[in-house]
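Team,

Forwarding the record for the chain on the shared tracking sheet. I've put the sequence and predicted structure together so nobody has to dig through attachments.
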Amino acid sequence: MKVESIGQNIRKFRKQKKLRQEDLAEMTGLSPNYVGALERGEKIPSLETFIDIINALTVSADMVLCDVIDQGYEIKSSLIGDQIRRLSREDQERIYDVVSVLIQHSKPKNI
């Protein structure tokens, strides 16, 4: 299990919400030291603690676990697709052009 990925994602979403570790700790009843240890990948939260954290951050479990679970890239693709759909047509075209170039220059996966 990629424990550090869970912690990195918790940190990412905490920062997106402009929260300090102390703020998240207070919202969840955890200590700031424990939140720091989670974010550094030194600790794995219990299911109850994990649920408290994602509720406090108002994110879904799959968003935090997307780099950990086998379906992670499908989830990331879905999230990115949602973000792209909210952009203007012009911005969408630019992104699709960049992605097309990247795909053309990537190595195919041997199945």
